[in-house]
Structure to design on (97 residues):
């Protein structure tokens, strides 16, 4: 089970529909990328990186991704999550299953 950090708790809004990409990397880390449209139509993005124990290693949220559709933002977020995982020096962090 994943433990959410304060960044996620500040970002989450159960009333807004979101799309999610969850992936377990070869290193055992889990990436969680979520994208949604705000009430005013802005594309918003959350990126989370979690250890094998479910604790957050890195979380970041974007209140707006100007010029990006939900699909584009989600793809960018997955790439960003993989880059962050690799930057933490975990072997196998750049590839998932």
């Amino acid at each position: 089970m994943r433990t959410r950090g304060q960044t996620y708790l500040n970002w989450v809004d159960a009333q807004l529909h979101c799309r999610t990409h969850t992936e377990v990397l070869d290193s055992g880390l889990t990436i969680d990328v979520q994208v949604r449209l705000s009430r005013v139509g802005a594309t918003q993005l959350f990126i989370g990186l979690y250890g094998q124990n479910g604790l957050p290693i890195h979380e970041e949220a974007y209140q707006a991704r100007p010029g990006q559709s939900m699909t584009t933002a989600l793809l960018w977020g997955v790439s960003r999550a993989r880059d962050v995982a690799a930057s933490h020096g975990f072997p196998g962090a750049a590839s998932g299953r």
